[in-house]
Structures are given as C-alpha cells and as structure tokens.
Specification:
210 residues, mainly alpha, Arc Repressor Mutant, subunit A, 80% helix, 0% strand, HTH-type_TetR-like_transc_reg, HTH_TetR
Length: 210
C-alpha cells in the first residue's frame, strides 16, 4: 500500500508545482501591466484559470504572491553572475554587464515591480518590498564578490563604492529603457556601463599606487 501511494504523492507534488508556476506566470503578467496596486487575487485567478482557493493554498495573500514573483525573477537575473573564475578582469566585468542587460530584457519583473515598491512609503511595509530589499542586498554582495575577484588591488571601500555605482547605474539604464522603449538599446548601454566600471576601477587602482 505504501509503495502504491508513492506515485500518487509524486503526481500530486508535480501538479502542485505546475499550479504554482501557472499562478506565478499569471501574477507576473498582470503585475507588469497594472503594478502592485492593480494586481488582485481575482485577476490572477481569471488569468491562470485556477480558483482563488488554489492561489491561497500556495500563497497567504497578494503580498506574498508578489514577493514570490520578485524572488523568482531575481533568481533568474542572478544567474548571469555565475561566471568562470579564469576570466580576466575586463572580460569578467563585460560579461556581467551584457549578461545583466539580457537578463533584464528577458525577466524584468524583479526590477520593475521592486523599484515601484521601493519608492513607496507605507505605515506597514509590504512583504514584497521587504523581499525586494533583501534580494537587492544579495545582488550587492554578488557584485562586490565579482569586483573583489578581479584581483586588481581594489580596497574594500572601493569595492563597495563600485558595487553601489554599478547597481545604481543598472537601475538608471533599466528606467531609461522602460521610458524610451525600442528607441533605447539596452545591450549597447550596458556594454558602455561595463567599460565605464572597468575604467573607474583601474583609475582607483592607479590612485592607490600614488
């Protein structure tokens, strides 16, 4: 009997994972169009074809759902920083820059939703905003490690300054793309951003040697 129950449990788990993915896909699409305030459990239910009860089985409320959307998009985005250790400094930075551009074009929801939430001020902070702040800290740590691994002689303070500048620049380029649409070549701009980061890093190293 126990053996016969295993395939049923596996099937139920797979069905649960597929349902969760359908819900997240629907929530992502709706949130991208309407933002945090315009997203509702009812709209997500209509979009994914699953009853609201199924959504509440996976997620406590809308805020929990949007937090999961941000986290999933961020995990896709972060994959660009898993680079081979044998890359030379300039190639590592350029790969991070162009990889980030491609990830933002393919999975922009993390930044689009997160920036909207980050700029809002509420008496009670939504969990989705807290999730965005958390994953931004992870992005900062990952960027700092990438810069430190360049091995060109940056101080700890310089690494933190460059990481802050790199992420702030990425925010600005993404917003420029959101405003300018197809007129903005995000890949070209991130390539320029990577070159500027490398030039700034080398200038810092030269200043350290003086």
């Amino acid at each position: 009997m126990a053996t016969a129950d295993k395939p049923k449990r596996r099937a139920k788990r797979v069905d649960g994972e597929l349902s969760r993915t359908r819900i997240l896909d629907a929530a992502t699409e709706i949130a991208a169009e309407r933002g945090y305030e315009g997203t509702s459990i009812g709209a997500v239910s209509a979009k994914c074809g699953l009853p609201a009860s199924s959504i509440y089985w996976h997620f406590a409320d809308k805020d929990d759902l949007i937090a999961a959307v941000i986290e999933r998009s961020f995990n896709n985005w972060m994959a660009v920083w898993q680079l081979p250790e044998d890359l030379v400094a300039v190639d590592r930075l350029m790969d991070v820059a162009t990889g980030t551009a491609k990830a933002l074009m393919e999975s922009p929801d993390f930044l689009r939703l997160g920036l909207m939430l980050a700029l809002e001020r509420r008496p009670v902070e939504p969990r989705a905003r807290a999730m965005f702040v958390k994953v931004r800290e992870e992005a900062f740590d990952a960027m700092s490690r990438s810069l430190d691994r360049l091995g060109i002689g940056l101080t700890e303070g310089q690494v933190r300054e460059l990481a802050t500048y790199a992420i702030a620049g990425a925010d600005g380029l993404f917003i420029a793309k959101e405003i300018g649409g197809d007129a903005v070549d995000l890949l070209s701009l991130f390539t320029l951003h990577g070159q500027a980061l490398y030039a700034t890093a080398m200038r810092m190293v030269e200043e350290n040697a003086r």
